[in-house]
Design brief:
Chain lengths: ~250, ~575
Amino acid sequence: MQTVTLVPKEQFKISVEAETITPDNFAGKSADEIGAVVAYEGNAPRPLSELFEISVDGSADAADDVKIEINGNVNRVKRIGEAMTAGLIMINGDVDMRCGAKMKGGTITIKGNADSWVGQEMTGGEINVQGDASYYVGAGYRGEACGMRGGKITVFGNANDFVGEHMCGGEIVIKGNAGIMPGVSNKGGKIVIGGDTDMPGSEMTKGTIIVKGKVKDMMPVYQKEGIESVDGEEFTKYVGDVVVDGVGELFVK
Amino acid sequence: MSEMRIKNATVYDPINGINGDLMDIAVKDGKIVDSVGGSAQTIDAGGRLVYPGGVDAHTHIAGSKVNVGRIMRPDDSRLNNKPRTKVTRPRTGYTVPNVYSMGYGYAEMGYTTAFEAAVPILKARHTHEELEEIPILDKAGLTLFGSNWMVMDAIREDDLDRLAAYVAWGLLASRGWGIKIVNPGGGEAWGFGKNVSGLDDPVPNFEVTPRQIVRQLAEANEKLNLPHSIHLHCNNLGKPGNYETTLATFDVCKDIKSKRDRQSLHVTHVQFNAWGGNHWGDIESKSEPIADYLNKNDFLTIDMGQLVFGSATTMTADGPVQYANARLLKARWSNGDVELEDSSGVTPLEYHPQSYIHGIMWAIGLELALLTKDPWKVLMTTDHPNGGPYVNYPMVMTMLMSKKRREKEMEKIAELTFDRTSIAGIDRELDWYDIAIKTRAAHAKVQGIIELGKGHLGVGADADIAIYDIKPDETDATVEFDKVEAAFRHAAYTIKGGEIVVKDGEITATPKGRTYWVKATAPADGHERMMEDLKMKFKKYYSVNMANYMVQDEYVEHPYVFETGYQ
């Protein structure tokens, strides 16, 4: 087991693009080697050693045996864990956009809040956000046909608008409330919202959305199918979006 | 200026009939010369392959529709990103790269000249602003005339001199190189939500047929003695069964006599126009009758419009076909209306090898090139970025050179493709000389720029030279296709106007290229009648004032003006 601990040296004012912070990239490397890995602060390439205090405990041959712990505020550090295939990242604080984008495996746990696009286009693995998540949880990049394709995202707090936009697979669980239009343009996958939301599933062609709280407004594009029970709870089932010949399933209390 | 000598070069220069000779090339002041002094900078090619700089006679690299593609495709902008270097600006994009990247990408492959294939006059100013910023390449734009009110009115009134005068004025106004015709008449019909169904379907409100438009513009082209022939995108593009329209369109120009040493008709991206069948279910390749026609006739040339699997951004002045594509594929769609001149559309799409329709399209492009015996008649293009991005040219070259490479590609293509195409049975493999024709020499000939020193390495030609890291006499391109592709992707040297712009696949300098345009004199009485009509059109219909319409010289900072005209 290799444990890498990163502590930011300062509160970053300019955002840092750190897609290089992944278990895959750190596996088997010493603190010096990890320190030489480059991230971009604005448009300037910076070695991680200039940005973080780095300590390494133990060693590992492969990513699945690596744990990265980030202590401190990384709310201006983007793309942490991008395309990681295995291992564990613990972020003991808030994190900036696109954390876990294109992730293929492993686990990311965020103790604080996650900014927008957490788990963007991920295909596998698991992300747990213990605080709130901002916009576009598990969505696609602008213009991308598919958002999240596999894996699981759990947000224990609330999420903002457009949860799982263009989602094609996988599962998103929001324990709290979600903003407007969760599952917009969905083509697959499952979204479970524990709290309230608004206008779910517009342009959904496939997939499932379950809303356990209140739905403020429904888009007028769904056909009612009757009452159905999911995991012991009774929901009204709708199918749509009929405008795009969708067969998505929407369960509303 | 400097002198340079390239020694031990294995040169293929089809325009001068040089076929793999081991020789030295001397360069002085940006031109090829007989010899240079002993102090000249020397590059030892060591027997490696040397071609004239590549020429692309049909591509979409600048202008409003490329920009619309960029706006529509932020997902594309994050592909192929490369940070700036000491000499290059940052690069983004695959199907619609950023402006600078267009020049870098071509130069890396040994290309030095490219023709933007569709410039509406109204949007020409924007096009030139982009062309001017594309580094390294020499450029030119083909001006759209095929659905233009002034053109159609002159044709209806059977006034060829007025038509020729308008073409001359349009080329001046757009600083254009030649006549581009896209779905003749269709762009105007699209303004009313319609299309023209074939050569004899009259354009609404104008009562002229596509046949008349093609014919009269071809005649006007010869009347003005333009360097390029008309450049035609046929009617019914993208519809199963369209090969009949294509063959009938060829016939329209059969007896047009070219005044120059070139074809009298160039039909572009014929892959999209060589489809048999009646609907998507029974679509099949009809490359054979088209290749047969090309084998029997010498008045026309075509380019492939080869399909490359993966992402593409289709963009054309053919508005209706883009609407059909977007509806069929449930894809994004952008539509443009260019006032009195044309329409346009942009739709991103993905070509899947598992789709037999895309498989058939892939096969047709190669069949056209391989079944047509004379390599000078079929240019290698992908109609960038409609059939696929230009960065894939090296792959297409290897597919033309190697049956094994084609077979490797066929393994991933839907089975049904091969019942409806003949690609699997074609054994022809092109050699180094043929590829030089298909990627440079024939492009220069078709566009009429040989006399400007393009596409060849004769004494007096521009010193545009590509050296590839491969030795033709030691390489079997039919087997070692991966090696060949890698060499073509990253030229060992690209030399543009005597300056080394690429070394070992890396950009080393980014000089500004020229923009070629044609200044043609028109019949004087025709010009008078044309101006009268034009002033009326501007007053009544255009949203811009005539005085603000023409591209000024300030927009074309590095011009090369080709003067020609009516005698």
